[in-house]
Amino acid sequence: AWESAVDMYPKLSYKVVRFCGDLYYEKMSKAEAKSKIFVKLPAGKKVENQRDIDCFMRDNLNVKLPMDGPLIRQYVQEYNPTDQAHLPADQRNGGIVITKYHHGLCDGVSFVCMVLALGKEYSRDFFIKSKDARWYEELFVKLTWLIHLPKLLLTTVFAPTDDNFITRRKDQMNGELSIRTSKSFDLRQLKALSKNIEVSINDIVTAAITTAFQQIFKEAGDPAKEINLVLPASVRFKFYPTRESLKLENKFAAMALRLPLTESMEAAYPKIQKVTAAIRGGLPYLYASYSVAHWFNKLMPNCFMTKFVDDLTEKFTVSFSNTPGPIKPFVFDVKP
Fold first, then answer.
1. What is the pLDDT of residue 218?
2. Are 70 and 13 a contacting pair, CB within 8 Å?
């Protein structure tokens, strides 16, 4: 299935080259692209359980993706997990593919939809229910995004810089990334909780973040009451209706939020709902953010944009991102 993706989506056959300080795509042959994308794990690095997977991803995360091929790698091996003995034999994993790709290739929505497109069935029913924007709603957003430019500047370029124990120590951070996975949880239980306490799933997740950060700040003896958070969100107006319509693209923008820190989940909801209300009605703001970033990247040198982004991120304590996951398993034709 994955090899067919190179044939279906031309962007998987491009590598990145430098020219005059900027980055450009250069086409490769499909055979060469496939030889770069698919990597078999050596015997000494094979994973046998979830802990091994965490460690492999943690270590690999800090290795820069080489630009001599497509900005994606698929690490493949036979997988006989040592931590699934409690499962029936037909439910145990028999193989594993660990994917690493650069955001320059595409965003999470494109990537997850591409994985779905390689399966037996392609349908939006695999995801949480959503609806497409109507044509006049899309037109309105595209025509009025300039109105939101002042708000965008106030919440980013002219926003106050966070002053807390995390931001004060940024120059001491080594840049090493870490990773931790959790056990799977039943989305139905989260939806039931959301309905029972009359808050959205977004409210629950955001409240969990603010409560956790409050505990971290309290343990560090920091009296901060609010933090700046940046949240990436999709600016698509509709779901890719067919496999053929799918594009590997970056159609997202950053939304800057001022997040109150709270002692408990119960205390968080009334405050958080004001924040998440801005997210729900934030498509025009997001489109303004996307348009500015898009045209600045088109017209300005890469070195200028890198410096601008570096300076802007100093204002924020944390960024929070998520990739849209399926609510039921994807099914693939697996050939022996």
1. 93
2. yes
